[in-house]
What we know:
mainly alpha
Amino acid sequence: MIDPYIYLSNIADDLWDLRQQTGGKESDQAESMYNVLENIYLEPFRHKQVQSNTKKYARLAQKLQSDIAALDASIKQITGIQDKVQQVAQYAQIFDQIIAIAARLA
Length: 106
């Protein structure tokens, strides 16, 4: 299947080449056809593509931002768990010291 945009772009390129390789009336006609093809068909298509891509990128950026926020929340949760594990380890160390002191006193 032929992509119409590529097909029209190739025609525009050929018209531009024809404009440069000829002179006089033929050159003017080739330039006129090139301008019509560019301004009426190709440029609006490119403009729509840019708008479409901009919207897609905006949606992707928004999703990325929400994923980053979720990841940040997970990191904070993991950090909280790590802090609690550290506290438990400190309490266990203190408890071991209390038991060691109690064993010496007994």
